[in-house]
Amino acid sequence: MKNNYLVIPSHNLKKKSPNVDFLFPLKGYCVGFKKEYTLEEIDKDSYVYINRLLDSEKIESLKKILPELEKQKGIVFEDLGVLELIKEEKKNISLIFYATHANCSKDTINALLDYVDSIVISPDITTEEIKEILKKAKKKVCLYTFGPIPYMYSRRTLLKNYQEKFSLERKNELELEETSTNKKFVFIENEYGTVVFDEKKLDGRIFLNEENISYHLLNLDWEEIEDLSVWIEEFEKKLPIKNTTDGFLNQKTIYRLPPRKES
Question: 5-148+201-245 is classed in which CATH architecture?
Answer without folding.
Answer: Alpha-Beta Barrel (3.20)
